[in-house]
Amino acid sequence: MAQINDARFTQETRAFSDALGQRITGHTEVVNGLRGLFTANPHLSRLDFERAASEMEVGQRYPGVRNLSFTRWVPGPEREAYEARVRVDTSLSPDGFPDFKIHPPGERAEYFVAEYLWPMVGNEGVLGLDISAQPTNLAAMRYSRDSGQTVVSAPFDLIQEEKYRQGIVIRVPVFDPTAGTAEQRFVGAVASTLRVYDLVQGLGSQGFLNGIAVAMTDQGPVRTDSNETTVRQLLEQTAPGLLGAQPLVRDLVVHDRRWQLTFYPTRSFLAPPEARLPLLAGLAGVLVSLLLASTVGLLVRQRTLALVRAQVSDAARRESEERFRALFNQATVGVAQVDSDTGQFLRLNQRYADILGYSMDEMVGKTFQSLTHPDDLAADMAQVRRLKSGELPEYRLEKRYIHKDGHVVWGDLTVSSMWITGHHIAVVQDITSRKSMEETLRANEQRLRSILERLPMGLCVVQDDGLISFRNERYVQICGYTQEEVPDVNTWWQRAYPDAAERDAIRQKLIDARNQGVIPAAEYTIRCADGKLKPVEISGIFVEGGRLITMQDLSQHKAAEEEINTLAYYDPLTRLPNRRLLMDRLQQALATSARHHRSGALLMLDLDNFKTLNETRGHDRGDALLSQVAHRLRGCVHEDDTVARQGGDEFVVVLEDLGGSPEEAAARGEEVGQRILSVLREPYQLDGDTHHSSLSMGVTVFSGMHETADELLKRADLALYQAKDAGRDTLRFYDPRMQAAVSARAALELDMRTGLAQGQFELYYQPQIDHGHIIGAEALLRWRHPRDGFVSPAHFIPLAEETGLILPLGEWVLKTACQCLATWAQQPALAPLSLAVNVSPRQFHQSGFVAQVLAALAGAGADGRQLKLEMTEGLLLEDVEDTIDKMGQLKGYGVGFSLDDFGTGYSSLSYLKRLPLDQLKIDQSFVRDVLTDPNDAAIARTVVALGTSLGLRVIAEGVETEAQREFLERHNCHAWQGYLLSPPLPLAEFEALVHRTNIAGGALPPV
Fold first, then answer.
1. DSSP state of 772
2. Which of 29, 48, 260, 305 makes the best surface tag, with the fewest CB within 10 Å?
């Protein structure tokens, strides 16, 4: 009986050890599945990791898993940058991880940081943990990195647990196959952290701790190169053992470590009848002895011998039957004697009943058909019929039974015929746990396959024998090669690269990569199943039994690159090179010209009156004209020459290698230019309508010596404007004198800006006389240049108008004039004086002009009635309604208005009636010849008469002689200004003149 008890104990320990090994294998498959995701995409996001881990349903399928993680390798110098990158990672949370830090703190040469975690709940303290704080875990990580193998750590305490803290980590390294380096670049590791207590309890809940207790220790690595000898506890004894019972020790190799499992029986493995069997046998012996003693006294010697023989024979029979019964009942598998005709259980052992949840008494009389799953019954019955007919001596199958409580039990059934006709023996082993593990593995494989199928990149697995055992849907979409068409790699090469020489070269390159452990990512052009060529990126890694190949379709990427290149370097309307590409080609042309001592020409073209076409016939017609012009230009030059659209309606043509001298290049350049002018004069068809157009052209010659692209474009631009000034529809060559004028103009503009900032401008005052008294002055702007002295207003005022500097200059004049008026108001002799200020049309038509004038008056504290604004006829006619409105607003504050240079332009009398003017000024051009030119004299008289009739005061400017003054006086024009009295004076000199004239009675021309 002791041997039977020990055999059953040994069987239970073996079942537990096998189940534990299978469970570790299942956990390893989970980790390898996650590693596959990182291999396919080394930049897998936190969100993708979370989704993949959630879909695996690890918590339900794999008891003991505390977390799944990705631990990233971080070099010491990159720590701060890495922490900053994780803090702003919003792929999982919109707030990112603002408090993320590597812990424990401290400077180290390298860190192995827990970056991705699933689940996060309950593992918050693990995020950011540098496993350098756990020496046993760190050692496993480094060995995994250096060897590339799956490893298991030594046991360590789980920081998130309060009791049963022993845990282990199953870890696989992750390398970046796309790094393109000779050696694989280590990225980190994917790991599953297990709590040993939960792992064992999960097996116990499935019946693998039936009558046994276990204690577990880690004996250290199995590697010969390790000096580690420390024995660490994995699990304390799960339950007390039987007193005096001998433990059983088993070793289990878990990847690179050896575990020692010590088992203790917690109960006897004999049934109660089996336990009483030795006592009954002893009592039976005593009875037999007494019986024999009695019989010896009663029977004769001969009968005694016969009886003894009979008893010996009966004892042998009973012993044989008892031995069979013991073996039958104590077997570790279920055994039953079944009626082959009815399927009823006639006799069975306890193990059979335990498997199905019934007692032995309940089982007797039941049929195996009633306990068999309906889906498996037909196959079982078919085998029974073959057994009964003698076709089979025995059969074996895996089938499902219905447990007493209703759940399914998987059994490994072996059925054999008995010597008793109509009966058979059924031997069944419970394989439910194995089936569950197989189903889990199948589900994981299917889940992983499903993930791989949905990946946005092509994937295939090539076995060592060349068979392509797996390809996902994206792979087939990219190249079109299905399993039926291209089952192996040799066929793939022949189809993808029909040219043998090209195929052999590329294939040899990939074979050479085997020594690197990876297939570096590289671009290839393959022929697809539809016969078309397609650019793809292929990379891969070598795995056990073959290699994993990834394929990315670069068609859209290439098209996007081409589109980006086109947008960056070509005009989208005309498809001609844009300014960026023009500058590049022009620089190349200059370099070539200098290197070969050859000359070329640059032509700048501008369509005449293009703006009018756009405004009158629409931008669509304008675009159509530009496209046709571009087409004609390309046809006028050699294919090696450059035709570019610089913008708007401007085109540039670069002609290279026109001759060995600038003169020759100029002659040939003019020839091409004239041809272009002639071709572009031809009529254009725009939406069925005929349109005529011409262009102006500027030409400059280059030799590549001390010339830049920008300088050439400036030269051509100057020549172009010279062509426009010449009447358009012609070409002009660059004239250096034009450049000098433009340079001087640019220098003058810069000096003006500097002068305005440094206060180089000042006001001069020319007195205005009426009946012998100075009644006011005209403020005239003067520029005292620190180098050139006084600069003529005729020189700088027009440039100020063009560049917009007239606006800040005009504002300064207004403010200065108002300050002057405010100062005069404090002096009785000067207080009655008015001050006239010239206003530029550009300044007047500003939206804030009225506010600007009022602000100048208010800022200085001047009286608006003493301020007079002088305006030209052109200003009045530009926008009459706006002019009237602004003049009316200012008139309300007392500001007066004078119409300057009256008679030199076009003035409508109706406008004069509407405008709130106070004064007309006769232009000096009429006053100058008033004594010698009857026309000028008539105009002067007419202006005086017109002003008087309209109620306006009249003043003449430019009076230089007494005869001119007398003429004006005779015709009732008593107000005048000019050199006859005084040129424009500085403020102090003007004020002194007023005192001499109006107060001291200084000499004036006779009236």
1. T
2. 305
Question: SS in 3 state form for 73-138?
Answer: EEEHHHHHHHHHHHHCCCCCCCCCCCCCCCECCCCCCEEEEEEEEECCCCCHHHCCEEHHHCHHHH
Residue 503, amino acid: R
Mapping DSSP to helix (H, G, I), strand (E, B) and coil, where does residue 541 land?
Answer: strand
Q: HSE (CB half, 13 Å, CA atoms) of 528?
A: 15
CA pair distance 694, 721, nearest whole angstrom: 15
Q: Please provide residue 594's backbone torsions phi and psi, each rounded to the nearest 5 degrees.
A: -70, -40
Name the nearest CA neighbour of 673 among 697, 640, 700, 702: 697
Q: 280-284, 753-757, 767-771, 905-909: which range is least confident on average?
A: 280-284
> Shortest CA distance to 338 belongs to which of 400, 398, 399, 380?
380
Other CB atoms within 10 Å distance of the CB of residue 357? 16
Task: Quick: pLDDT tens for 129-143.
Answer: 998 777 877 888 888
User: For the segment 688-724, what is each residue's pLDDT rounded down to a tens digit?
Assistant: 888 989 899 999 999 877 788 999 999 999 999 888 8
390's tokens: 């003698």
Task: State the DSSP H helix or E strand holding residue 952, giving kind and residue range, or none if neither.
Answer: none
Q: What is the pLDDT of residues 233-278, one digit of tens each?
A: 999 988 898 888 889 999 999 988 899 999 999 888 776 655 555 5
Higher pLDDT, 76 or 903: 76
φ/ψ of residue 573, rounded to 5: -80, -50
Give Cβ neighbours of residue 228 (< 8 Å, ≥ 6 apart). 139, 154, 220, 221
- Backbone conformation region of residue 894, classed left if phi is above 0, alpha if psi is from -120 to 50, else beta: left
Nearest to 291 by CA among 277, 304, 306, 276: 304
> Which position has the higher pLDDT, 106 or 822?
822
From the list 396, 342, 347, the residue with the least C-alpha distance to 370 is 342
Residues in the chain: 1007
- Paired strand residues for 462: 468, 547
* Tally of CB atoms within 10 A around 338: 22
Rounded distance between C-alpha atoms, residue 308 and residue 318, angstroms: 15
| Long-range CB contact pairs, 13-19, < 8 A, 24+ | 13/212, 13/248, 13/250, 13/261, 13/263, 14/250, 15/208, 16/203, 16/208, 16/209, 16/212, 16/214, 16/261, 16/263, 17/250, 17/252, 17/261, 19/203, 19/206, 19/208, 19/433
What is the C-alpha separation between 720 and 246, in angstroms, rounded?
A: 110
Q: How many helices (H) and strands (E) does the chain have?
A: 34, 36
Q: Which residues pair with 225 in a beta bridge?
A: none
Are 113 and 130 contacting, i.e. CB atoms less than 8 angstroms apart?
yes
Identify whether the C-beta of residue 653 lies closer than 8 Å to the C-beta of residue 659: no
Mean pLDDT, residues 471-475:
91
Distance in Å from the first CA to the final CA of the chain: 160
Which string of DSSP letters, residue by residue, matches 619-651? Answer: HHHHHHHHHHHHHHHHHHS-TTSEEEEEETTEE
At residue 287 the predicted structure's pLDDT band, cuts being 50, 70 and 90, is very low
87-101, 626-640, 680-694: the lowest-pLDDT one: 87-101
* 624 touches 676 (CB < 8 A): no
Secondary structure class of 525 (helix, strand, coil): strand
Amino acid at 742: V
- Rounded CA-CA distance 964/798 in Å is 30
Q: Cα–Cα–Cα angle for 351, 353, 354, nearest 5°?
A: 60
Buried b (16+ CB within 10 A) or exposed e, 821-835: bbbbbeeeebeebbb
Predicted TM-score (pTM) of the model is 0.40
What local confidence, expressed as pLDDT, does residue 296 receive? Answer: 37
H or E stretch covering 751: helix 736-758
Q: Amino acid letter at 751?
A: D
